[in-house]
Amino acid sequence: MVNILLACGSGIATSTAVAAKIKDLLNDNGYGGKFNITTCSIADAVGKSSSADLVIATTVKPGGIECPFISGIPFLTGMGRANAEKQVLAFMAQKA
């Protein structure tokens, strides 16, 4: 099981929206049942990153993240989304 931490400023609004897009992306590409997504604030992400496999955030990467990091901003803006999707799928392919 791949543990994905999805963070935004408050841990409520944009992280939830991006989590839904990531879930659809992964399910559509054969990773259903192989991942768990937890949302949190970016302030909490640093402490929680030690137990996560991947952090995706809609903010700038803070110092102290202890696992791989992918920007979630393209999932909000649409700009660069295809590249961000490729990064997420490549990460999952390494873990599968």
Characterize the structure shown.
- This protein has 96 residues and is an alpha/beta fold.
- Helix content is 45%, strand content 22%.
- It is built from four helices and four strands; from the N terminus they run βαβαββαα.
- It has helices at 13-28, 42-48, 73-77, 81-95; strands at 2-8, 35-41, 54-57, 69-71.
- A four-stranded parallel sheet has the order 2-1-3-4.
- The protein is globular, with a radius of gyration of 12 Å.
- The mean pLDDT is 95.
Sheet bearing the most strands, described? 4 strands, parallel
pLDDT under 50 segments (min length 5)? Answer: none
Helical/strand content category: alpha/beta
Terminal residue distance: 9 Å
Strand order of the largest sheet: 2-1-3-4
- Quantity of strands, as a count: 4
- Estimate the strand proportion: 15-25%
Tell me the number of helical segments per DSSP (H or I, 4 or more residues long): 4
Provide the helix percentage. 40-55%
- From N to C, what is the helix and strand string? EHEHEEHH
User: Mean pLDDT score, rounded?
Assistant: 95
Evaluate the radius of gyration.
12 Å
Please give a quick description of this structure.
With 96 residues, the chain is of the alpha/beta class.
